[in-house]
């Protein structure tokens, strides 16, 4: 436990240092008559950012419409909006990937082949196309029934959550589904599964209780990479849905202000890394090394 805590703290410190270096990257370029690389300015900005963080981060300001504003109260609204969408989409993708993989396993072989082909086709479709098609579907349903299932555009007094969460979860759900299905097929021929079937356990019990335990232990290490993948799609999602989220805020004010960019990156990455680390630790603690022959 102590070794795990030390590793967790070390990873957090390394991540923080990396984010400060990344957040100061706009200072590496200077624009006069031409674009030049300014390494001294870049390292100077890193030092200034570190000083500001250790002195009083609440004094970091930015300019909006010519008015100087304090950063953290202004950034918290867009940040919490985006974080809600990100975390919800990640949880939704995990749940649906396990559910879809389970359906694929219990289907007859012929139907399972069609099911795999559908997942492959869906995986090849661009994310933007899927988002636009879903918006058009909502509009078509509204025209036919006069019922608006979900808001398709976020407004200041009426933010949208459901459709952006669904759209952001589609791509990671497909990737996780293919991964979970692959791991399930690997586990099906192992000795502890053959022993469980020999004891008369039903296929549903073998999959849900025995196989999924080991599968979850395998895919939990991929949660971070899927979160990064979702984060890369967040900017496009916020643009299409007119969401005033954290990526929109950073694009508007962080490209010309290294402190704003650094704070935004830290707020996005550090809390989510801590949350995903806790989830990974809890899954490994609950399942205690996975299912083996001795535990059947």
Query: Beta-sheet strand percentage?
Result: under 5%
Q: Please trace the helix and strand order, writing H or E for each element.
A: HEEHEEHHHHHHHHH
Give the helix/strand class. Answer: mainly alpha
Compute the average pLDDT.
80
The value of Rg in angstroms is 23 Å
Determine the CATH superfamily of the largest domain: MetI-like
| Second rung of CATH, namely the architecture of the largest domain | Orthogonal Bundle
What does this structure look like?
With 296 residues, this protein is mostly helical. The protein has two domains: 2-55; 71-295, MetI-like fold, CATH 1.10.3720. The chain has eleven helices and four strands; from the N terminus they run H-E-E-H-E-E-H-H-H-H-H-H-H-H-H. Helix 6 packs across helix 8 and helix 10 packs antiparallel against helix 11. The mean pLDDT is 80. It comes from Bacillus salitolerans. This is ABC transporter permease subunit.
Compact overview of the structure:
By secondary structure, this protein is mainly alpha-helical.
How would you describe this structure in keywords?
single chain, 296 residues, mainly alpha, MetI-like fold, two-stranded antiparallel sheet, two-stranded antiparallel ribbon, 4 strands, 5% strand, transmembrane helix, MetI-like, MetI-like_sf, transmembrane
In terms of topology, how is this protein built?
Elements lengths: L1 H22 L5 E3 L3 E3 L1 H17 L5 E4 L2 E4 H36 L2 H16 L2 H19 L16 H26 L3 H8 L4 H17 L3 H18 L5 H8 L4 H30 L9
Antiparallel strand pairs: 1-2, 3-4
């Amino acid at each position: 436990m102590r070794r795990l805590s030390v590793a967790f703290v070390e990873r957090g410190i390394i991540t923080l240092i990396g984010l400060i270096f990344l957040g100061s990257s706009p200072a590496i370029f200077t624009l006069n008559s031409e674009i030049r690389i300014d390494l001294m300015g870049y390292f100077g900005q890193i030092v200034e950012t570190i000083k500001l963080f250790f002195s009083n981060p609440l004094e970091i300001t930015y300019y909006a419409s010519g008015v100087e504003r304090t950063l953290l109260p202004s950034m918290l609204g867009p940040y919490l909006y985006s974080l809600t969408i990100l975390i919800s989409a990640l949880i939704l993708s995990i749940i649906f990937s396990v559910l879809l993989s389970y359906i694929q396993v219990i289907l007859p072989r012929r139907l399972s082949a069609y099911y795999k082909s559908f997942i492959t086709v869906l995986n090849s479709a661009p994310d933007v196309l899927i988002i636009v098609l879903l918006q058009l579907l909502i509009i078509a349903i509204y025209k036919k029934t006069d019922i608006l299932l979900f808001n398709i555009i976020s407004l200041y007094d009426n933010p949208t959550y459901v459709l952006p969460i669904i759209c952001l979860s589609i791509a990671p759900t497909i990737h996780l589904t293919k991964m979970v299905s692959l791991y399930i097929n690997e586990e099906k021929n192992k000795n502890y599964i053959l022993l469980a079937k020999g004891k008369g356990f039903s296929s549903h019990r073998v999959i849900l209780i025995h196989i999924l335990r080991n599968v979850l232990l395998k895919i939990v290490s991929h949660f971070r990479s899927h979160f990064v993948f979702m984060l890369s799609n967040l900017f496009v999602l916020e643009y299409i849905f007119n969401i005033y989220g954290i990526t929109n805020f950073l694009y508007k004010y962080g490209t010309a202000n290294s402190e704003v960019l650094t704070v935004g990156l830290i707020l996005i990455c550090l809390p989510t890394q801590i949350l995903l680390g806790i989830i990974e630790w809890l899954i490994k603690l609950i399942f205690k090394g996975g299912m083996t022959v001795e535990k059947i």
